[in-house]
Amino acid sequence: MLRTETRKAAADISPVERLHALVAADMAATDRLIHEGMGSAVALIPDLARHLIDSGGKRLRPLLTLAAARLGSYAGTGHVRLAAAVEFIHTATLLHDDVVDESSLRRGKVSANIVWGNKPSVLVGDFLFSRAFQLMVETGSLTVLDILAGASAIIAEGEVMQLKSANNLGVTEEDYLRVVSAKTAALFSAAAESGAVIAAQSAERIAAMRDYGQNLGIAFQLVDDALDYSGRQALMGKSVGDDFREAKVTLPVILAFARSTETARRFWQRAIETGPQGESDLDRAITLVEETGAISETMARAHRYADQARQALAPLPEGEIRAALADIADFCVERAY
Fold it and tell me: Is the CB of residue 228 less than 8 Å from the CB of residue 242?
């Protein structure tokens, strides 16, 4: 059930904004460190990095790191370094993804690969990965280094798995969830877990934050994949139908194909597997995913993962931070409305 009463009591600001306010000093320190970290004598590096980092992202992943540390009453500065490292990893993966996907729009702006080209985007992404690992090392914790380094490898594996699943309607829901768990949920989970680890929280609370991040990340990606076949996507500064044009087999397509008539199945086989796509194909694809209930089912799955994220918070101390984290789980699926 959506937490309507809680949202109204929060003066109509989003739970992400509430969490920002609760860790405002830490977030300001993280932002300063992010801007210091992307500095370079090579002018192209900060110019290109700033284009994406300052483009209006919510900093949700580093927020999870800061919140997890504060839930453990952490008083040091290592959580700020970890939060900045998480944002660098996230930004690096976005730069690489836009090159691989040949994207033209990111957060409502022309993507960096269109402005500067593919090679600079990939190389600046590599630079940001390197900065992230420098920050991890500065914390002096091999455990958090292991968590975030492992997540970085898993993310790369997820992107490769997604490449292999393109143009393939034989992809199963299980295959799809493996990709989502790797390319999206892994960083949410690692961001939350590393904040709890740096604060030396109990094993139960560390596991709670890890599970919260994992389920939140899956819910987040399910909503993104549903939105790709929705007019709501355009309102959020993203292109509608990018996944379709790139022949990605996401859950809406998997469900729609499984529920299709023979005529519709032939359409999906041509549009996704063999090509070519025509000008009217996206409109037909949107109609089919809606008519088969694939969008509503994808959103229902997202809600279930959001519920699991909220339930994972049970071992953590009650208070404003935990309440904001619980509401963020609902907020991530409400983006579709």
Answer: yes
Q: Which two tokens stand for residue 97?
A: 């993804």
What's the gap between Cα 57 and its chain centre? 11
Q: Is residue 286 part of a domain?
A: yes
Determine contact, residues 221/181, Cβ cutoff 8 Å. no
Closest-CA residue to 46 (of 107, 88, 79): 88
Residue with tokens 């694809």: 285
Rounded to the nearest 5°, which phi and psi values hold at 43?
A: -60, -30
In a domain, 192, yes or no: yes
Q: Which two tokens stand for residue 162?
A: 């997604």
Q: Quick one: DSSP state of residue 74? A: -
SS3 state at 229? coil
Predicted confidence (pLDDT) per residue in 201-252, tens digit: 999 999 999 999 999 999 999 999 999 998 655 555 556 898 999 999 999 9
User: Residue 10: its pLDDT value, please?
Assistant: 46
Number of domains into which the chain is organized: 1
Sequence letter at residue 14: S
Strand partners, 110: 105
CATH code at position 209: 1.10.600.10
Q: Which amino acid would we find at residue 234?
A: A
Among 131, 164, 140, which residue's Cα sits nearest to residue 38?
Answer: 131
Q: How far is CA 218 from the centre of its chain?
A: 8
CA neighbours closer than 13 Å in the CB half-sphere of residue 219: 26
Inter-residue contact 124 to 48 (CB < 8 Å):
yes
pLDDT digits (tens, 9 = 90+) for 21-34: 999 999 999 999 99
Contacts of 57 (CB under 8 A, 6+ apart): 107
The pair of structure tokens assigned to 181 is 């768990």
6 domain-assigned: no
Query: Do 144 and 198 form a contact (C-beta atoms < 8 A)?
Result: yes
Q: Which domain holds residue 299?
A: 14-334
Q: Is there a contact between 81 and 139 (Cβ–Cβ < 8 Å)?
A: yes
Q: DSSP letter at 203? A: H
- Compute the mean pLDDT over every residue in the chain, rounded to the nearest whole number: 92
Residue 232 belongs to some domain of the structure: yes
